Amino acid sequence: MTSGPAASAARPGAFDALRVRDFRLFWVAALVSNTGGWMQNATVPYVIYLLTGTAGQVGVTGFFQYVPFMVMGLVGGYVSDRFARRGTLVGVQLAQAVAALALWLLVATDAAAPWSVTALAFVSGLLGGLNTPVWQAFVVDLVPRDQLMGAVTLNSTQFNASRALGPFLAGVVIAAFGAGAAFLLNALSFFAVVAVLLVVRGRSAPHPHTEGFLSGVRSAALHIWRTPALLACCTAIVVVAGLGSPLFSFLPVYGEAEYQVTGVRLGLLLGAGGVGAVTVAPFLLSVVARVRRAVALPAAMCAYGAAVALTGLVQQYWVALLALMLFGGAYLAIASTINTSIQLVVEDHLRGKVISVYLACLTGALPLGLLAWGWASDATSLRATTVVAGLLLVAATGVLVVTGRFQVMSAADDARDRAQVADPEV
After folding, report:
1. Please, is 343 exposed, middle or buried when counting C-beta atoms within 10 Å of its C-beta (0-12, 13-18, 19+)?
2. Torsion angle, CA of 103/107/111/116, rounded to 10 degrees?
3. Domain contains 2
4. 392 CB contacts (<8 Å, ≥6 apart)?
5. Is there a domain that residue 224 lies in?
6. What pLDDT is recorded for position 44?
7. Closest C-alpha to 363, from 246, 222, 215, 190
8. Which is nearest to 288 in space by CA: 193, 413, 129?
9. C-alpha–C-alpha distance, residues 213 and 232, integer Å
10. Bigger pLDDT: 210 or 414?
11. Which residues in 151-177 are b (16+ Cβ under 10 Å) and which e?
12. What is the distance of C-alpha 426 from the center of its chain?
């Protein structure tokens, strides 16, 4: 095993990035921390729905929880390319732990109100937005370039494994100890990342300070605009995040109002998407990684939209779990395809800033989608809103296919082929 990202002599297998010591340690710590984060993500809308009883307020809180990602994600991209990523991550993890502790205190002392929970969710969103582009760029620092695809997919896999485990544990913990305990466990989980960051070594150094924040964002945006593959990635994530991704925040409403489940059954409902993602991960690593992106991405987006619509249509709890497993598996395929495409095509000196602009597209579309879902659900019904959103996602994907928006992603396929040594077994 190796301790750093020394160049590989032969094309690596799908899981060989885990042989790199620093990446392996970081991957495990990320699994722990993201599990805590998904516990909190599932618990916030649950608490808001209990306090207010309206889907509209769940959407409003979701808006304020995710919209700061858009602004702070841009800042995070600048910070990622300007300052040491490891030190930045340590500071942000500690700040996120403090925000989670504040949520725990509110709930534990029965002082929680919709405005106070929403305010702390906003603060958590600010910190999460700063953290994400630095985090994603730091993953690249830990592995050689020919292991990048496996590392990005494995990183997405642990994220979605935590997406399965975190919400499931949230349902169990809420039933056994109350919602406050979920926030406390999330606070503690950040220290796993801090401990690992103190011992791992990345390979990149900050780039010289040559431009300010706004000019850096402008440079990244122009790079995306002039690079068709990057522009296609940003377009796709706007459609996915705005129409389909809000479903996760409304799953507690499905649990309370539609299926009347608690404890393990609520946890299964919240975590089914993550279970689906973990289930398809080996397939993504071994098969989909070789499929042309112009085929893989629209297929995954259509499956995602169909899963959203199916979740709104079915009345049986267990069938809904299957639909949500498809929802999670399709999202992992989307995220893996887009993330590796960006990492392969982007210019190195713009990597952090380009990731931050991409995340701004995601986190700009998601809160707007949450507001729209909340308002539409109060005006009609949550099920009707879910079905319409899923069908719109499928239709939008069809438009992107017909207009040739995905064909330009061949540049990422070419970069992938150049980065890897020929090996028909992978």
Report:
1. buried
2. 40
3. no
4. 243, 305
5. yes
6. 93
7. 246
8. 413
9. 24
10. 414
11. bbbbbbbbbbbbbbbbbbbbbbbbeee
12. 26
pLDDT above 60 (res 206)? no
Domain assignment of residue 308, given as a range: 16-202+213-419
Question: Does 8 score more than 50 pLDDT?
Answer: no
Amino acid at 115: W
DSSP letter for each residue of 331-346: HHHHHHHHHHHHHHHS
C-alpha 311, offset from chain centre: 20
Q: 3-class SS at 418? A: helix
Split into its structural domains, the chain has a count of 1
Distance between CA atoms of 1 and 213, rounded to whole angstroms?
39
Residue 11 is assigned to a structural domain of this protein: no
Residue 408: give its domain's CATH number. Answer: 1.20.1250.20
Whole-number percent of the chain with pLDDT over 90: 35
Q: Are 262 and 315 in contact (CB under 8 A)?
A: no
- The predicted-structure confidence for 212-235, as pLDDT tens digits, reads as follows 667 777 888 898 898 888 899 999
For residue 219, which of 72, 65, 53, 347 has the smallest C-alpha distance? 347
Widest pairwise Cα distance in the chain = 60
Residue 180 has pLDDT above 90, yes or no: yes
Three-state DSSP string of 355-387? HHHHHHHHHHHHHHHHHHHHHHHHHCCHHHHHH
Looking at residue 332, its pLDDT comes to 83
- Residue 10 domain-assigned (yes or no): no
Task: Write the DSSP symbol of residue 254.
Answer: I
Q: Is 84 within 8 Å of 171 (Cβ atoms)?
A: no
Q: What are phi and psi of 3, to 5 degrees?
A: -100, -10
Per the listing, tokens 């340690």 go with 25
- Measured between alpha carbons, how far is 345 from 369 in angstroms, rounded to an integer? 28
Looking at the whole model, is its pTM more than 0.85?
Answer: no
One-letter amino acid for residue 204 of the chain: S
CB 155 within 8 A of CB 18: no
pLDDT tens profile 265-278: 888 888 888 788 77
**For 128-132, 293-297, 400-404, 417-421, which range has the lowest pLDDT when averaged over its residues?**
417-421
Residue 5 to residue 22: CA distance in whole angstroms? 8
Residue 32: name the closest of 158, 153, 174, 180 by CA.
Answer: 158
pLDDT one-digit tens code per residue, 15-60: 677 788 888 888 888 899 989 998 998 899 999 988 998 888 899 8
Mean pLDDT of the chain: 83
- pLDDT for the residue numbered 145: 66
